[in-house]
Write a structure and sequence with these properties.
The complex is a heterodimer of chains A (404) and B (356). Chain A is an alpha+beta fold. In chain A, 47% of the residues lie in helices and 15% in strands. Helices cover 54% and strands 16% of the residues of chain B. In chain B, α7 runs antiparallel to α11. Chains A and B meet through β9, α10, α11 and α12 of A and β8, α9, α10 and α11 of B. The structure holds flavin-adenine dinucleotide.
């Protein structure tokens, strides 16, 4: 792999930088600084989505015919790095990285024409209705039932842990359309309008004090058959395809480098008297470990992504990237919590954090570190827990060839 | 006996709602006073192991009631200083005093300097139960005379107290002293040894409480993995889960052992005592992180939901790590001992024999 940038790439990078300097307003940067979850608050994330969309840069990972940018892998990586460097808000990935690719691959022409532009523009806000109370790691055991009634499915059951269901106007969901011996063979993939009668959303508050996830109940919910993606009972294929994007559809290293950089700045600006936290060899040593971890991760990501075409995903190696990126992420926020110390382990009056006023940038950092640590415990649980990823990885290596 | 009483007393306490501190449980505090438990904690001569067992139950129940900050530490300091009346009021549950001994990052800890015949205080610190109290027992450094405690009411001119909810469920106060007057009688006049004894007892008790939180997390995780079914069987039947549980069992046993060891060593000479306490605090800190993180992990999504008690214990353990000298600080203390020790071959019984 060649890690030097060509003159064209450098010109591209400068163009991207200039754009971020110009187009990313301070309130959105602030929203990202004080964002303690994986997704931005809609007022931040959607606002940024619209700005990127207006520039034509909302979906670099999509094929050009659907609204992608046509960039090379290097350019996409540069964009990701610069975006994080500029402090841009996290985008709402359920549309861009999850249901978007599924619709591109399995959707009807009508579905593509209707939904894809609305994902790009930010008009639709998607949530993911996969997990159920009794179907977590064992997703295929899901029981939410969809029964055919003319042109509709009638749906009863419930979903749990649905991130941002309380903000979303659409859900993509897995439902059971047949009782089959192989449970995967009776599942269908549906697109649901959250405004339809028969949907109730109940908040779940998490250990960081935030409300991001929900329980969603369906009672005689009617969904048009036309909203099914793929054939009836073929939904599992869509789900597997989607999960590989969810696990490693982009470059986590860009985000993580910024998280480490942020920690580095924090450790430089706090301390006692003339001693900075960063001068503590133990803290610097842990940051050194993380830096090397990130070198490996970024190199692996570049290597893996160079093997996949735009609009595709890397397959089982996604598990490796997911395990490492969630571990590295958690090690950064854990260390940040050590750096802020006791004072950081406090609640603020308003939730989410961005609703509070802070006097200085340092106060913002002190406030955000511990909630981020708490919220990031979920990264080794969602999108397939670390234990499940390790099993996938072990099987794919043991059943494959000696060359990993 | 102590275990059962603790379990009974603490069993009915409610968890604070996430994002807030608990209300101070005045009824329970009154009961602890009436039954002599506050006096027990405040007694410098109480058997370390008994105190540890009591705190272990408090941790297991996840109570936010400030046994250490408002009874054990200030009570012992007052008793050692010969302030029998003040100590008596405290253990009767009249007037609440919070220990204020945690540093604020980037700020100087409180220093007392002479100002005429009195003293004046400058600096900042955190009283992790201070938000519930109207007086503070502040750890101070006396100009040229070593450490002491100062007993300061909240309305003392020159003191600003900022109150906020801690993630441990306690109402914290961050204190700032700017030339705060400390007339005679404010300083307790403890020797360095006296201050050391109070801090050591407090740390040992905190270790025991942490071990209790860890035991509660382990028990909750056990219940969950036995009950939760995925792929047609309890997740406890997957070897990856079993081995993790085994590691957690080991960690909890180690933590409990070290907490008791540290408590027993409170009776040893200061060097032995502090070595044991630092070792326990450092190691239990690391073990608590392991147990807390894995408790969340093995609960899956339920682990991050506030419908479960996991998050509360997790946050209390994170606060434990950040307090009483951080995990990092105490590990450094043990490392300093290692560098200076002529030999590392001594057994627990060698050192214990000398002190007994
Ligand atoms: C913050 C958060 C946001 C989420 N957002 C969404 C969302 O938007 N949409 C959605 O559909 N879902 C979402 N999820 C759900 C998530 O995908 C599930 O939590 C995850 O699949 C794990 O399922 P579970 O919680 O039921 O845990 P379980 O499957 O019960 O697992 C519990 C523990 O057992 C382990 N385990 C299970 N099976 C095995 C095995 N065979 N071998 C070894 N170990 C095993 C797991 O690794 C875990 O440690 C979210 C979860 C969280 C925490």
């Amino acid at each position: 792999m060649d890690l030097t940038l060509s003159p064209d790439d450098i010109a591209f990078r400068d163009e991207v930088r200039a754009f971020f300097a110009d187009a990313l307003p301070e309130p959105l940067r602030r929203g990202q600084r004080l964002n303690t979850g994986f997704f931005s608050e809609p007022e931040i994330g959607v606002a940024w989505n619209r700005i990127l969309h207006a520039r034509g840069w909302i979906a670099p990972a999509w094929p050009v015919e659907h609204g992608g940018t046509g960039w090379s892998l290097t350019q996409r990586h540069i964009f990701e790095v610069e975006s994080n460097r500029a402090g841009a808000p996290y985008l709402q990935l359920q549309g861009l990285r999850m249901v978007g690719p599924v619709i591109m691959r399995y959707g009807t022409p009508a579905q593509k024409a209707y939904y894809l532009p609305r994902i790009l523009s930010g008009d639709d806000y998607w949530c993911q209705g996969f997990s159920e109370p009794d179907a977590g790691s064992d997703l295929a055991s899901l029981r939410t039932r969809a029964v055919r009634d003319g042109d509709h499915y009638v749906i009863n059951g419930s979903k749990i842990w649905t991130s941002h269901a309380h903000h979303a106007n659409r859900m993509f969901a897995l439902v059971r359309t047949a009782e089959t011996e192989k449970r995967q063979a009776g599942i269908s993939f549906l697109l649901i309008d959250m405004d339809t009668p028969g949907i109730a959303v109940r908040p779940i508050v998490t250990m960081d004090g935030a409300h991001e996830v929900n329980e969603v109940f369906f009672t005689d919910l009617r969904v048009p058959v036309a909203n099914r993606v793929g054939a009836e009972n073929q939904g599992w294929e869509c789900a597997k395809y989607l999960l590989e994007f969810e696990r490693a559809g982009g470059f986590a290293s860009g985000q993580l480098r910024m998280a480490l950089d942020r920690l580095h700045r924090l450790a430089r600006s706090t301390g006692r008297g003339n001693e900075r936290v960063l001068d503590d060899p133990h803290i610097a040593g842990r940051m050194a470990d993380i830096l090397c971890d990130l070198d490996a991760l970024e190199f692996m990501e570049l290597g893996v992504m160079s093997q996949v075409d735009v609009g595709q995903n890397p397959g089982p190696v996604a598990s490796l990237l997911k395990v490492r990126s969630s571990e590295i992420r958690q090690s950064i926020s854990e260390l940040a919590t050590d750096v802020v110390g006791l004072e950081g382990l406090r609640w603020h009056a308003a939730s989410p954090l961005l609703r509070n006023d802070f006097d200085t940038p340092l106060d913002e950092e002190l406030a955000a570190a511990a909630p981020i640590y708490l919220s990031e415990r979920a990264h080794s649980i969602f999108a397939g827990s670390t234990e499940i990823q390790l099993t996938i990885l072990a099987r794919s290596y043991l059943e494959g060839s000696e060359q990993a | 006996m102590i275990r059962d009483s603790g379990a009974k007393l603490f069993g009915r306490c409610e968890r604070p709602r996430v994002g807030t501190a608990a209300a101070f449980d005045a009824a329970l505090w009154g009961e602890l006073a009436a039954n002599g438990w506050l006096a027990f904690l405040a007694d410098p001569g109480a058997a370390g192991a008994d105190v540890a067992l009591f705190l272990l139950e408090a941790g297991r129940a996840g109570v936010s009631i400030p046994l250490i900050d408002c009874a054990l530490a200030p009570g012992r300091a007052l008793r050692l200083a010969g302030r029998a009346d003040a100590a008596e009021r405290l253990v009767r549950g009249e007037g609440r005093v919070a220990l204020a001994a945690e540093p604020v990052a980037g700020r100087n800890a409180p220093v007392a300097s002479r100002s005429g015949s009195a003293w004046a205080l400058d600096g900042e610190c955190i009283a992790p139960a201070g938000g519930w109290c109207d007086a503070f027992l502040v750890a101070v450094e006396l100009d040229g005379r070593g450490p002491d405690f100062a007993l300061i009411p909240q309305d003392r001119p020159g003191l600003t107290a900022m109150r906020y909810a801690g993630m441990d469920g306690c109402q914290h106060a961050r204190l700032r002293f700017e030339a705060a007057s400390a007339p005679s009688g404010t300083l307790l006049g403890l020797s360095a040894d006296g201050v050391g004894a109070v801090l050591a007892a407090m740390r040992a008790a905190a270790c025991a409480e942490a071990a209790g939180h860890m035991a509660a997390l382990l028990a909750a995780t056990r219940r969950h993995v036995l009950a939760r079914k995925q792929f047609g069987k309890p997740i406890a039947s997957f070897q990856a889960v079993e081995h993790r549980i085994a590691r957690m069992v080991i960690a909890v046993e180690e933590a409990r052992s070290l907490a008791l060891f540290a408590a027993i060593r409170l009776a040893a000479d200061a060097t032995e005592r502090d070595r044991a306490i630092s070792g326990a605090k450092a190691k239990i800190g690391a073990l608590s992180r392991f147990v807390a993180q894995n408790a969340v992990q093995l609960h899956g999504g339920m682990g991050v939901s506030e419908d479960m008690p996991v998050g509360h214990h997790f946050r209390r353990l994170a606060t434990f790590e950040a307090r009483h000298g951080t995990t990092r600080h105490h590990r450094d203390q043990v490392a300093a001992f290692v560098r200076g020790a002529p030999s590392l071959g001594g057994s627990l019984l060698d050192a214990g024999a000398g002190a007994a």
